[in-house]
Each structure stands twice: as C-alpha cells, then as structure tokens.
Design brief:
single chain, 331 residues, alpha/beta, seven-stranded mixed β-sheet, globular
C-alpha cells in the first residue's frame, strides 16, 4: 500500500483511534500503569474491571499508533506519548481525550452535514438545546468539560498571567472565568491585585472560596457584567459564540467599564492568510461551528467586533502558537 493510500485510510478511520484513546482514559489505564514499570494486560483488565481480550486488542492497536509499549508476553508499559494521558502529567491530554469522545460531543460531530447545509450549529440540531444547557443537565459530561477547561493547554494560564499588561490594574474582572484558575494565577504573581470571577451559577456552585483577594459573582454576561474593574478579561469565551452574541457580550463589558479601562481577550488568533493557518487552528474552527455556531477569528474580525462595541486601540500584546492576547481600550 502506498504511503498516500495509507495516510488516507488512517484519516478516514481516525474516529476509531480517537475512541480508543478516549475509552482507555475513561477506564483509567494510563493512571493505573506505573510510570516506569510494566503490567500484564490480564492484571490491568482485572484491576480496571474490563474485558481482557478487548483490552489486549485495544492496547495492541494503540501501540501501533505510538501509544504505550508491549512485549511478547503481553506486558504493557508507558512510553513518552502514553504518559501524556495520565491525569498527573503537567502536559496531560487526559481530559481532552475524555471531552472529545464524550457522548454529547461525539453525536454532535455526526451532524456536521447539517451545519454544512444550513449554517447552523450541529450540537443544537442533535440535542435540541444549546451546548451549555445540555452540559447543565448532564453531570458526568460537564465534570469532564470543566476539567478540560480548567487544564486547557498545558501552561496556558501561567503564560497568560505572565504576559497580560497589568499596569495600573488593581481590580480585575474575569468575565466567564470558570473556576477562577486564570485569576488565581494572576493573583499569585501580583500581591497588590484583587479579582472577581464572573460566571453562571452552575459553574460556580462548587468552587473553593478561600482566597481572600478573590471573589465570585454569579450571573450572565449577556445581561450585565460587574462594574468598577480596572481590567476586564475574556479568556476563551468569544470563540464559543457567533458574531451577534459576541457583540452582546462585548457591549455588556463596555457598559461596565469606564472610558480608558482595558479589555484583554485571550483566544486563538487565526492568520489573515489561509496559506499560513495551522491545520489545528482550522480543525478547532470547525469544532466551534459544530458545538456553538462559533468560530476562531482573525485580528481583523476581532477589531471589527470591538470597534462596533465601543473599543479602540486594538493590538496584539502577546502571540503564541496556541493562543494570543489582544488588548482593547474602552472609548
């Protein structure tokens, strides 16, 4: 078989590889295996309470795609790539694997053809409700999603915290800030700053509220945003929404802000030149369409939305392969 044919076959059947990685993580194999030792597949099956024959065959297949190592006696051990599936790995992809293979996400991707025909989001077409409403009603899946979002890309929160321009900022409002991971990282680095995490009641229901400089406020950024902040942050929020809703979110932020106060947007930034776009960026762009009718955007697209919402002086203050930090000033 030619290399081209082999690559096409792998791509067409890629959903099988994705599912194998997801179920192995859900079953707990990467965390059950000692990081340095080997374990018989039969013992792993017994500890994980799964079928030995199917586990052996899945492991054998994953070994062929570069995950784990296996000897002729059926002993399985970690390799560099499978270690990334452990929850305790600083660069862990465990929750990403679980999220992308969770039932709600998997079923939504099956309706990509509907999105192609209509321009609508596939997720709502399949589940008859929007993504966040669905998650509120599915406890197991929302826990996976929240873990995925709190971990994000390895080192993401630390990198954002280290590169946000904080001059004259004393109160930071993280709009749609989830469990507060990013703001906690900022406060850890800046002892003279206080912060507000603003998000939906369901997101904040079980957060730890022990940090004295950090408070949590419940609400919807479509209705309003807490006022009096010196700096406002939207981190991985806007790509979840189509332009109409993005304008609504930005207007809410602008109404809460005094002129001259700054807004920070941390998002993946698409290249203006399609030839320079990273393939992963383009994949995530379709992912946003499937789940939210959202999209990844170029700087020009962000600038137009910000200009229409009462912001100017739009500029990129930090550029990273996985995300960029954009700053805008309230007019």
């Amino acid at each position: 078989m030619s290399n081209n044919n082999q690559n096409i076959n792998y791509l067409i059947r890629g959903m099988g590889i994705t599912q194998m990685i997801g179920v192995i993580c859900e079953a707990g194999l990467p965390d059950e295996l000692d990081q340095a030792g080997a374990m018989p597949v039969s013992s792993a099956a017994q500890k994980l309470n799964v079928n030995e024959d199917v586990l052996l065959r899945i492991c054998r297949a994953l070994v062929s795609f570069g995950f784990f190592s296996m000897d002729s006696d059926g002993n399985i051990s970690h390799n560099e790539q499978s270690l990334l599936l452990r929850k305790d790995n600083v660069s862990s992809q465990h929750w990403a694997a679980r999220f992308w293979t969770s039932p709600g996400i998997w079923q939504a991707w099956g309706a990509l053809g509907h999105a192609l025909k209509t321009g609508e989001e596939a997720f709502e077409h399949v589940h008859h409700q929007q993504f966040f409403s669905y998650m509120d009603a599915h406890e197991d899946e929302v826990k996976v999603y929240q873990q995925y979002m709190s971990r994000g890309y390895a080192g993401r929160h630390a990198t954002v915290a280290a590169n946000i321009p904080l001059e004259s900022a004393r109160l930071i409002v993280d709009v749609g800030g989830g469990k507060g991971t990013l703001l906690q990282e900022i406060l850890k680095r800046n002892v003279d700053i206080t912060g507000i995490v603003y998000d939906q009641p369901g997101i904040l229901a079980d957060v730890s509220r022990t940090e004295e400089r950090l408070s949590f406020v419940e609400g919807s950024f479509f209705d309003s945003v807490p006022g009096a902040g010196d700096l406002y942050i939207l981190s991985w929020v806007l790509h979840d929404w189509p332009d109409r809703e993005v304008l609504n979110i930005l207007h809410s932020c602008r109404l809460a802000m005094q002129p001259g106060k700054r807004l920070i947007i941390a998002e993946r930034l698409m290249s203006e030149d399609i030839a320079e776009c990273d393939a992963f960026d383009l994949l995530l762009d379709i992912h946003m369409q499937v789940l939210h009718n959202g999209k990844e955007r170029t700087l020009t697209e962000f600038s137009k939305l910000l200009d229409s919402s009462g912001f100017n002086e739009v500029k990129v203050v930090f550029n990273h392969a996985a995300f960029s930090i954009i700053e805008a000033v309230a007019c």
